[in-house]
Write a structure and sequence with these properties.
EC number: 5.3.4.1
CATH class of the largest domain: Alpha Beta
Number of strands: 20
Function: Acts as a protein-folding catalyst that interacts with nascent polypeptides to catalyze the formation, isomerization, and reduction or oxidation of disulfide bonds.
Distance between the termini: 119 Å
Pfam families: Thioredoxin (PF00085), Thioredoxin_6 (PF13848)
Organism: Glycine soja
Largest sheet: 5 strands, mixed
Oligomer: single chain
Shape: elongated
CATH superfamily of the largest domain: Glutaredoxin
Bound molecules: 2-acetamido-2-deoxy-beta-D-glucopyranose
Subcellular location: Endoplasmic reticulum lumen
Structural class: alpha/beta
Strand content: 15-25%
Helix content: 40-55%
Length: about 525
């Protein structure tokens, strides 16, 4: 063979090998998937024989494709719908989500959903991670023909299935027999039902658009009144009907608005939560993003909550879609403590009822016993805006012997703002790094000015005391309140030496004395 010919043959062979390699790789992956499918089917056919939870899980996890350097682009760009979970092996929230994700993958396969579910160890494969846009952990992204959109559903397996069905396949489940309706009821506790004479026309289209846009509630439809009645017993035989169903005393809410996408979504947003929602790590984002800005939070242990539930549900019914009622397990450090700290009640073992107006970021505390009457009155006042916002305060201290007076939330008005004297206030927190040094300086200054009866030294622990007029974010902070201008305290540098601080104080006192002299 001539050298050029040999080279061409070599090139052709190389090309063939390369193509073959790529092809087998794809084929391997597909076969792997199909094998898992068959296995799932075989196991499903076995019926009676129950798989252990671990077996189900490990099988489900294999339905999820593992993305790596070499297959990521191909999988994401070569399929219409791919849901990617970007995770890191050391991240506990990833670990928590993984089994739910795998379980959802199994359910979606069974439903015949075309979605490919894939996971990427973003720690191990940084290149594909940056290609996909995985930044935090865990990250869920839906790729539609290679273009990504953020995941916006809930985080249980059922939540993922509902969301995926909405965005990729069948946003509404259609019921055509009593058996189907009954089966549906065993699976879904919360859903939006639509009855339409025909599944067409502008009203129906808005309903389907709402089903697609909503991120978490299963929509169901039927054309027959008898079937609709299985799901929503006192359905009105109008030509079209919408209602939400939940599993609790306030079980049915009928929609009476116009069949317009945004109105339907608003109805869902205001009605989807139960009368009392239990806050969990999984639903916290949903709860915080509710359009209902007035929220009453009940912190209690499980037994106290059980005793209080009927009462709370009764009250919640009165304030439906105006106030959201949330239960937080008082023993759950992660969920309860950040809230209780806002009330200075982090050590409380007894039931605490607090409220937030998220549109004004104010907080309120029920300071009487959590009885039905008291909670109702609290809610009424919250609605009318007549509750006084709550400010933390330690008990009023005894300052008779103190050279630096301890100020608490309750004494801030009297001792600082209404006092006729100049006040140097040190604002500290127990955990701040440089607070102790500043405290020592203030002690020394207090000694130095002991004789001057018109100058007071004070300090307040900002972690346990609040006042609407005290807005400090850095600790320590030194504020000099001049007797004649309490509304505008002067901030002194905490980096100043003792001498410099004394000089500043003298300057203000001197100006004041000068003014006094001039006035005389
Ligand atoms: C994805 O691309 C295919 C082929 O171009 C197209 O038929 C399909 O409608 C696209 N899917 C979506 C959801 O846009």
């Amino acid at each position: 063979m001539k050298p050029t010919l040999r080279f061409i043959v070599f090139l052709l062979t190389l090309l063939l090998v390369l193509r073959f390699n790529v092809a087998t790789e794809v084929k391997d992956e597909l076969e792997e998937l199909l094998a898992v499918d068959e296995e799932v089917e075989r196991e499903a056919e076995k019926g009676g024989e129950k798989l252990s939870e671990a077996e189900v899980l490990s099988k489900a996890q294999r339905i999820v494709i593992e993305l790596k350097n070499e297959n990521t682009e191909r999988v994401v760009n070569g399929n219409e719908f791919v849901l990617v979970l970007g995770y890191a092996p050391w991240c506990p929230r990833s670990a928590e989500l993984m089994p739910h994700f795998a379980e959802a993958a199994t359910s979606l396969k069974e439903l015949g959903n075309p979605l490919i579910m894939a996971k990427l160890d973003a720690d191990r494969y940084p290149k594909p991670a940056s290609f996909l846009g995985v930044k935090g952990f865990p990250t869920l992204l839906l790729f539609v023909n290679g273009t990504s959109q953020p995941y916006s559903g809930g985080f249980t397996a059922d939540d993922i299935v509902i969301w995926a069905q909405k965005k990729t396949s069948t946003p509404v489940i259609r019921i055509s027999s009593v058996a189907e309706a009954e089966k549906f009821l065993t699976k879904y506790q919360t859903f939006l039902i639509g009855r339409f004479e025909n599944f067409e026309g502008p009203d129906y289209e808005e309903f389907v658009s709402a089903a697609k846009s909503d991120n978490e509630i299963q929509f169901v439809e039927t054309s027959q009144v008898e079937l609709a009645q299985v799901l929503y017993p006192d359905i009105k035989p109008t030509d079209r009907f919408l209602g939400i169903v939940k599993s609790e005393p306030e079980r049915y809410s009928a929609y009476d608005g116009a069949f317009i996408l945004n109105k339907i979504l608003e109805f869902v947003d205001y009605n989807k939560f139960p009368l009392v929602t239990k806050l969990t790590e999984m639903n916290s984002v949903r709860v915080y993003s509710s359009p209902i800005k007035l929220q009453v939070l009940v912190f209690a242990n499980i037994d106290d909550f059980k005793n209080l539930l009927d009462t709370l549900q009764d009250v919640a019914k009165t304030f439906k879609s105006k106030i959201m009622f949330i239960y937080v397990d008082i023993n759950d450090e992660n969920l309860a403590k950040p809230f209780l700290t806002l009330f200075g009640l982090e050590e409380s073992k007894n039931t605490v009822v607090g409220a937030f107006d998220n549109s004004m970021s104010s907080k309120y505390l029920l300071e009487s016993k959590p009885t039905q009457i008291n909670i109702e009155e609290f809610c009424n006042n919250l609605m009318q805006g007549s509750l006084s916002p709550y400010f933390k305060s330690q008990p009023i201290p005894d300052n008779t012997e103190a050279s630096v007076r301890a100020i608490v939330g309750k004494t801030f008005d009297d001792e600082i703002l209404s006092s006729k004297k100049d006040v140097l206030l040190e604002v500290f927190t127990p955990w701040c790094m440089n607070c102790e040094a500043t405290s020592k300086q203030v002690e020394k200054l207090a000694k130095h000015y002991k004789g001057s009866s018109n100058l007071i030294f004070a300090r307040t622990d900002a972690s346990a005391n609040e006042h609407p007029k005290l807005q400090v974010n850095d600790y320590p902070t030194l504020l000099f309140y001049r007797a004649d201008d309490k509304a505008n305290p002067i901030k002194l540098s905490t980096k100043s030496s003792l001498k410099e601080l004394a000089a500043s104080i003298n300057k203000y006192l001197k100006v004041k004395n000068q003014v006094l002299k001039d006035e005389l």
